[in-house]
Structure formats: C-alpha cells, structure tokens
Amino acid sequence: MGFLPGGSSPSGPSSEEVSAFLSEAGRKHSARRDAYAELGALYERKHWHQLTVALLQLVSASGGVSGAEAVELFTRFVTGFQNEMNRLSLAKLALAAADGSDGAEGAAKLLGDCVEFISGAQGGDPREPVTLLRIKEASIKLHRSGDWLGCKRLLGECEEVLKGMLDVDPSVHAAFHKTESDLAKSKGDYNTFYRSALKYLAFVALDDLLEEEREALALDLAVSALVGTEVYSLGELLGHPICGALEASKCNAWLLVVIRAFNAGDIPGYDKLCVQYATQMGGNDILVKHAQELRQKATILSLLNLVFSRPAGEREVSFSDISTRTGLAIPEVELLLMKALSLGLIQGIVDQIDATVQISWCQPQVLSRAQVGELRERMVMWTGKVQKLAALVEHETVELSA
Length: 402
Prior knowledge:
The protein is mainly alpha-helical. It is built from 21 helices and three strands. A three-stranded antiparallel beta sheet has the order 1-3-2. The radius of gyration is 29 Å and the shape is elongated.
C-alpha cells in the first residue's frame, strides 16, 4: 500500500480497511485508544482539516506515535485520504513515518513515494512540501548511511529551490538549517555549525525542543563559538534564550561563565576560569585540542574590546596600552595587530616607529547590556558637546548681528 504516480487516487486502504486498522491500533496501543477513536470519527465525517490537525498533534507530542506505529499510521491510514490533505501537512506526517522506518532504504523509499505523489498532484505549488521531504532524505543520508557527500548535494539543491521561493513555512527553513548544522558538526566545521544552528533557532520555538535537546544544542553552540576561527562576536549567542539551557545545567553551566569572560576580552578573568574549571575543560576533547588557538582568540577579543571602549576621536592606540590590556609583551603586539588586520576584524595603519596603531574601523559587534550602557554614556557626552557648540554658535551669531 502506498502512492500511485502522478497524484492518482491512492492505492492506500479502503474505508473498511481504515476502520479495521483504527480498531486494531486502539487495542494494541491502549494508552491512545481514545485518540484513535477520535481519528475514526473525524474520518467518517470527512472533516479533513480537523483530522489533519489531530494527526500532526499525535505524531509531534512528547510520548506520541513513533517507530513502527508511525509507519503503520501513515501507510494504513493517512494514504487513504492523502488527496484531501494539505500537501505540506502530508509531508510532515511522512517525515514522522520515515523516522520510524527500519533502515535507510525503507525510509528513503517512503519519502520518495511521497515526493512522487505530491509532485504529480493537482493544484498548488509542490516545491515547499517536496523540499521538506528532500531535506529529510538528506538527513537520512547523513545519519543512517554516513553519506555526507550525498547529504551535501541534496542540501545544495534544496537551498537553490528555497532561494527562489517567498513566504516559506518556518518548518521548512528549520529543517534545512538543522540538517545543515548536523552536516557541519559531523565534519568538524565549527564556523558553519555556529551560523547554521543560530539560523535554526530563528525558525523553531525553544519550547518545542526537549530539555536534553536544548542543553545539547547550547553546549555545541558554546564550544563552536569558542573554537570557530570566524566567530569573533559571541554577543548573539549570549543574548539568545538558548543560553538558559546552559545556565540551568548542572554539568555545563561553567561554560557560559567562560564564554562571558572570553567575549569581554577579560584575559585575567579568562585565565582564572581556566584554572578554576581545568577539570571540566580538560574533559572536552575539542577545547583541549584548540587550547592554543583559544588563547590567541582571547587576546584578539581583548584588542577588539579595547578599541570599542575608546571614543571615536581617540582611536590611536599605543602598543603599551594593548600590551597592558592583552598581557602580551610589546614585541608580540605587532603580530597581534597583523593577525587582526588579516582577519578583517579591524582596519587601520600601524606606525612601527611611534609604536601606535590608528584604527579606522572595527568589526561590528552584538553588544552586551554593559556595552549598551557604555554606548549610552557616550551618546549623552556627545549630545552635551553638540548642545554647547550650538549655544556657542548662537552667541557668536548674536554678537555679529549687533
């Protein structure tokens, strides 16, 4: 039982077979007997929208239908009225069934059949549900077959389709960025993982994730933020509610403390925390492997924070000031500046004779509350200067007129 090509009438179950399945499922899964009875009543009355909503709730609820039960629900019930369903909802139910399928081949076949049916069905743009199904195919290639090249190829094709669409359902974007972040994690690509995981969080509600999922994601994001070679602004992560999962964690709350000191460019504070949490940091293989790079990144962030703390008219910084702030010896300051310039984090001119650097631009940062407070103080000072200048000009103008 399944689909017929071209969106034809389904080769799924008849009404009699549907009734028999629902009765059988109610007996087999007694905890959901009432839910199956409700599905049967909605099916008999042909309330397709309400039936679809009930099915989606059933497969998405914690402790809901999963595994072989989800496969049977889809193949022995949903396929019997798939022509009446919203195509995206049908695709979402197919995802749940694919998760419950045994083996990658069975899951891929179920998804492929659904793609074929939706592509040939009459009415509506099939790109959104088909793309969601193909993203799931990519995920299966990655997680069940270990075929990350195949996953990457499929994601690339899906990305091109999404670029050409407007008003895409958030669940499709969420699925794409989740799979993209999973692929990056499997390859040890911390930069891509960090960006993709944050995009994923923009399309999903935290309450929809299990507590352990939130903590695991927060941990992976935190580690990627620290070791990512292109991540020099951790404010976006620190300002995201996902950090609450770290803060509430008994095992990983220390990492959030380290990130805050790291982002602030607080070298002495960071060094103290490295000693205080030496056991925890030593238990994380990624942090141990990148210990030297972490130290260099901390000094760069210290430099960026030093530049930010200066008023716009005082962007000439001496090597000695940088040395004091970062803890580097004077001869190492120039190497630090060259690194920051090469990474495009700052723009300016280094004066080796006077041992100064004139900063003309600094990479924009997502500001913390403390930094916003500093910016407010600067705006107040600037406003005061403008008011004094305006008063002076007004006074001089009156004298000239007289």
